[in-house]
Amino acid sequence: MCSRGYRRPGDQRVSFADFTADHDIDKDGFEGDAPDEICSYCWSNTQSAVGEAQERGDDDIAEKIGTVGYRLRWKQKGRARDEWYDIVVSPETTMAELDRLVCRFTTLDDFHLRMYGLEDEYLDSSLNVLPDHQYEEAGDRSYTRASEMTIAEVAERAGLWEGDRLGLVYDFGTPSHYYCIVKEVYEPDELETVLDDNDVITSTDTAAVVREKRP
User: Which domain holds residue 140?
Assistant: First the structure.
């Protein structure tokens, strides 16, 4: 439920209903205080997430997801205050395009696998997105080729909106963790204005690095 936990390779994700039944917890939802079996930090985080999801379902946000652009602030864990880069992406931006821009500032090489996922999944990625050439080298069709997944598809799967995150893990043996926070959401006309700005740092056909903080 929260980033303070530790997931091992053999761990499995289960629904809240299954968890409460297995641990004999008398809870039907996320109201009230945390059960003894769940830490209060996890419980508070989950209550906030559920509240945000309900708010989004009550207005037109759900209809916009998959049609809007995002400003993603990418950072490396442990260096978040020292260095970050804002990448603006369109719904049609592929994960391959995003990967090219991420690698421009992280100087990640291709000696080790890197994989994209949602929130703090990292090695437990539910997206399993690999750069195209690494997908071919991996030879494992449980992964997803980066050029075959767009930001719109990721957004629809994750309900991506302001404040949400994506993650990137580099080197599965001794992993380095990168992540982005959705800092801003752009309507189509706003997005076009941002991407056409002559002051962008670098760009692809549908995305651009627009701002940065360097050490």
Answer: 68-213
